[in-house]
Amino acid sequence: MLQVRNIEKYYGNKNNVTKALDRVSFDVADGEFIAIMGASGSGKTTLLNCISTIDSVSAGAVLLDGDNIAELPSGELARFRRERLGFVFQDFNLLDTLTVEENIGLALSLNHTDPAAVRRRVEEMAGKLEITDILGKFPYQISGGQKQRAACARAMVAGQSLLLADEPTGALDSRASKNLLEILTRMNRAMGATILMVTHDAYSASYAGRVLFLKDGRIFNELFKGERTRPVFYHEILEVLAVLGGDVSDVI
Fold first, then answer.
1. What b/e sequence results for 61-90 when a residue is b if at least 16 CB atoms lie within 10 Å of its CB, and e otherwise?
2. Minimum mean pLDDT among 2-6, 186-190, 219-223, 235-239: which range?
3. Distances in Å between the alpha carbon of 92 and those of 114, 169, 178, 208, 219?
4. What is d(CA 27, CA 196) in angstroms, rounded to the nearest whole number?
5. Angstrom distance (rounded) from CA 189 to CA 229
6. Which domains does the chain have, with CATH numbers?
7. What is the reported pTM?
8. Span 5-18, mean pLDDT?
9. Residues contacting residue 116 through CB under 8 Å, at least 6 positions apart
10. Is the pLDDT at 248 greater than 70, yes or no?
């Protein structure tokens, strides 16, 4: 589904250049759940931003289903984001003036989807994420965990190809974090969602099937979960982080 090919990202000018990404390459198969980890400044959020088209690459290519996203005309880029990319962020990014139902269905409405079809698809997604009872409420009336579920529903309601999550548990307590990670796992396994998640947290990463570790803008290592249990995978992630950062507490 996703091919990242030797991408580089530079910031600054010729007198002061920072290389945030250094020839990063990897593939994401349809239906994978991948976590991206690394210390602050390792390039993981920059990588997600380049894949999401929030930022552009300085060199290399990012291809989604064979399409080079850097070559899309500006007029098609917004539509591409709405229809093929789903976003889940730490701060939810829900609009306070819209109900949960309206927030979830916003991308469909922007695409001029029939209102009855929008309502049907919103209710279907809300049912899968167990938030049907809050569809009529506004974001300020619901909990952080419910907001993040609504954000997940919004990210997938239009049948997007790829779900991008940037520290999705960062604003949640431990119970809500666990619930969200179980929801992401359900979306991946039962709904076929392909997920790419940036996280500092080894516990969160242990829910993924593969973990990519970045250091100084390069892929330092990767782990595959395979048939191992999540607790075993969690401890393996901690071991890599200890080598990666020297002090595990600095990077989780």
1. ebbbeeeebeebeeeeeeeebbebbbbbbb
2. 186-190
3. 26, 10, 16, 21, 28
4. 11
5. 16
6. 2-250 (3.40.50.300)
7. 0.86
8. 86
9. none
10. no
